[in-house]
C-alpha cells in the first residue's frame, strides 16, 4: 500500500509541475498511474479553483492572503498591494508561510504558473487556495483592486 501511495504522490507531483512526459511512470496499463491521473482531473470542479478579479469586492482584498508566484524581479517591478512573493516552484518548500485557515489567492502573469502552484498546494492538503484567472496582466486591465466596482458605467441598450 505504501508503494501505491508513494508512486501516486510522485505522479501527482510530476503532473503538478508540468512534467507531463514521464515515460518511465506513465504506462497505459498501470492502474497506479491511471488512478493518479484521475485524481489530477478530479481535484476540483471546473473553474472551482479559479476566481475572476471582478468577483472580488475591493474591501475583500484585505481578507485574502495574496501570493505572487512570479519571480522576485517581476514582483519588485510591480505587484498586487500587500502580496507576498513565493515563486511558483517554491510553494511546497515554503508552505509554512501559507496558512490553511485563511483564503489564499495565487497569481502569476497570466494564471498558468499559479495554477500549477495551486494544484501542488491542493495535493498537499490546502483546500483554501484560489487562482486569479488571467493573472496580474488581466487584473490590471480590469481595474486592479477595483475590478469588481468598475468606474465606467456599462451603456444600456
Rg, Cα atoms, Å: 18 Å
Total strand segments:
5
> What is the average per-residue confidence, as pLDDT, rounded to a whole number?
80
Q: Which quaternary structure do these chains form?
A: single chain
Helicity range? 25-40%
Biggest sheet overview = 5 strands, parallel
CATH fold node name of the largest domain = Oxidized Rhodanese, domain 1
- The count of domains is 2
In CATH terms, the superfamily of the largest domain is Rhodanese-like domain
β-sheet strand percentage? 5-15%
Query: How many helix segments?
Result: 5
Low-confidence stretches: 19-27
Fill in the keyword field for this structure:
5 helices; five-stranded parallel β-sheet; alpha/beta; Oxidized Rhodanese, domain 1; 157 residues
Task: Tell me what you see in this structure.
Helix content is 33%, strand content 10%. It is an alpha/beta fold. The chain folds into two domains: 2-42; 50-146, Oxidized Rhodanese, domain 1. The protein has a five-stranded parallel beta sheet. Helix 1 (2-16) crosses helix 2 and helix 1 packs antiparallel against helix 4. The longest helix has 15 residues, at 2-16.
Amino acid at each position: 500500500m505504501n508503494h501505491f501511495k508513494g508512486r501516486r504522490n510522485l505522479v501527482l507531483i510530476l503532473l503538478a509541475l508540468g512534467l507531463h512526459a514521464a515515460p518511465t511512470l506513465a504506462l497505459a496499463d498501470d492502474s497506479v498511474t491511471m488512478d493518479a491521473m484521475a485524481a489530477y482531473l478530479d481535484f476540483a470542479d471546473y473553474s472551482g479553483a479559479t476566481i475572476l478579479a471582478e468577483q472580488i469586492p475591493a474591501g475583500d482584498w484585505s481578507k485574502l492572503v495574496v501570493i505572487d508566484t512570479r519571480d522576485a524581479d517581476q514582483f519588485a517591478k510591480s505587484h498586487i498591494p500587500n502580496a507576498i512573493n513565493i515563486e511558483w516552484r517554491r510553494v511546497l518548500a515554503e508552505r509554512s508561510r501559507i496558512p490553511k485557515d485563511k483564503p489564499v489567492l495565487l497569481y502569476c502573469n497570466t494564471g498558468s504558473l499559479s495554477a500549477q502552484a495551486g494544484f501542488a498546494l491542493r495535493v498537499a492538503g490546502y483546500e483554501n487556495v484560489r487562482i486569479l484567472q488571467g493573472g496580474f496582466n488581466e487584473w490590471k486591465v480590469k481595474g486592479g483592486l477595483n475590478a469588481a466596482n468598475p468606474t465606467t458605467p456599462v451603456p444600456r441598450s
